[in-house]
Amino acid sequence: MAVSVPSDLWPQVERLLSRVERPSRYIDHEWGAHRREMAAYRVALMYPDAYEVGMANQALQVLADRLREIDDIAIERVFLPWVDMAAAMRETGVPLFTLESCAPVADVDLLGITLSNELTYSNVLEALDLAGIPLRAADRDDTHPLVIGGGPSAHNPEPMASFFDAILIGDGEDAVLEIVAADRAAIGRGAKRMERVRALAAIEGVYVPSLYAPGPDGRLVATAPAPGRVRRRVLADLDSYPAPTCPVVPYADVVHDRATVEVLRGCSRGCRFCQAGMVYRPVRERSADSIVRDALAGLTCTGYEELSLTSLSTADHSQLEAVLRRLVARLDGTGTAISVPSLRVDSFTVPLARLLGDGRKSGLTFAPEAGSQRLRDAINKNITEEEIITAVEQAFTAGWRRVKLYFMIGLPTEIDDDVRAIGALVERVLGVAREATPKAERGGLRVAVSVSTFVPKAHTPFQWDGQVPIEEVRRRQGLLRESMPHRGVELSWHDPSSSLLEAVLARGGREMADGIEAAWRAGARFDAWTEHFSLGRWLEAFASVGIDAAEAASAPYIQGGPLPWSHIDSGLAEGFLRLERSRTDSATTTPDCTFEDCTGCGVCPGLGVENVIAGGGSRA
Amino acid sequence: MPEGFKLRICFRKTGPLRFLSHLETGRAWERAARRARLPYAVSQGFTPRMRIAFGPALPVGTAGEREYVDILLTRFVPVAEVTERLGASVVPELGLVKCGYVSPAEASLASRLTIAAYEVEIEGGSPQQETERSLVTLMGTGSLSVEHKGKQKVFDLSQALPKEPEVRFVEGRTIIRMWVRMGDQGSLRPEVFVTAAVGRDRVVSVTRTDLLIDDDQGWRRPL
Description:
The complex is a heterodimer. Chain A is α/β, with parallel strands linked by helices. Helices cover 35% and strands 13% of the residues of chain A. Chain A has 22 helices and 19 strands.
């Protein structure tokens, strides 16, 4: 295969940097950045948002590490330039560039793009346009890179399907190697673009949208060689895949600027609203030894002052206390803080609080999600009010002075009493927090309450439900505001208008592509940034292509009927999802299969995997 | 910084890394010290932090050849060893120039360093003498009024520039060397002075080549 040296855009980029905000986003040369000048195959991995958001993405670091094991290929990072830089680039004719070689993105062989959430969709189009790559896969030719997506939002790939040549569903660690190998082999055979793309369809987990067309009932039907349903890719265990220990260490102040180790993947708690909890099954815990080893190696290599043990539910790890005890002992006196993302109140214990309380005292985050016991049962949150109160009491007794509580409104079956119950619960939390805090310190006591709007997602028991209309969401927000205590509470909202867009894009089908393109043409980008988001622009764009976005967000799907994601096999049995949905109406809970019996979700037999608990057996 | 061993590090910030902000540069050195496993001292209290202190900020986009940072160590590590470990923990564009120990009682870099030497490269084909004349003419006016964040600020040039700027031709490039006094009242930015003297859009690059202490022993480097 021909070895190529990319063209260097740096002299042109450099001239723009004195004109833009935060130029350190564009300069590469961080500790841990790798540059491979000569390469037979070039891959660009992009997170479609600003550098400071994209650098927090662990998946890209994991995939880059995996691909770097292949000697003769170059792996480079790409982020979306901020609006000022994008304007300067267009003005001076500088195309989207990779960071390491400062080479045109359009010149790589494969462009991988993370689909992490719906609010980055317009950014994908902005990036393709800045790169000079045709937006629609159908318009690309042999001179353009293959554009491949993947990530959590890919579980309903349809709204973005026509912009991608292929989309990976599920875990990427092995699949990326197979994708690159298959494409290199195809290029080696002298294959043209269509043949290169078709070759990818043979890889498990890879969805090639151009090989699927709507059938008589609306479901997408595959053309050979594509499978009828694309089976989600899943790793059997995590321990054979070390966490990236020498990731790129940014200079800029980025989101989650710290060393991270993914301690487990998957969550079997079974919260009915949670897409991640459904589509990342089964639970795969990393062993305590490998967590401690990778955490210490990561801190040494990066020089980070904070370590985060990440996962969907870190406190559920069967050996978390042992892991923390070992880490605390090793990191004593180094000024290194250990943090965990949001905790389940029923896994929060006094020893855990003490272990995390050493080092810096960052705030604690709990997610009760709903205010009333009935609604918590309906969504299968499986925690009681007493558990919430006990956890808060323990945290404040252990020295925390700040706790953050996450709630959602608009969940299926919610009534006004459930909304008011959030206020009552916060009031009780505030009360026990005060009690547990010495009088002199009560002034600094804070309960932060963050409220978002429920977005129904594919492959969950709520996949058939529509979103509550935005006017009704606003009315319930008013109700909540009235019922919320004022002193000591910091109340914040996730903007319901962006939740509406999320619902449209999370639930929609292929027809959404025209709306997304129209919105981008009207100026939509950086939709996750409040200052750039305009619901009006999106509604108009959808209307211009004949889509009523409000209707698309709120109209339910019929059980048994076609869904835009019917051809994506996440491993979950439809019968399980239906049963879970019916249990919502009766507020019946379903236990966690890592503590109790199998719940019959279908993932283990369907995908040939099982739960991996670090200590062996079950967590009970 | 009281007891302990005060390590003074002289480093460069060049190439693409001249676009780092002061804060970003600081964080980079903090992490480099951790990677090098230096026995750094940590502050007491709720959020323990590395005991680290920086010299005067370098504007984003301006390169530096001899910038400084002090880190308090809890035990002595030979200079040769620190040099090796730190040198291996940074990228070349943010490279270690040298390091050594100073008295823990020594006043902070920010207060000691009052003279900054710069090289300003300009483009445009005026001969050396003409450039020199422009500089002399501007110096001769005695003061320069600068707009900063909507406010006019007048610099007394004999105070702001304690030594006459010099012009040099090096390999076909025109370089103006100048020395700027830094103080609580802010300092004159070299590109502002050069632009006022030779006209707009001529500055190609600005490099701070040295930071100096000015006391009864004259001008000297802090290390």
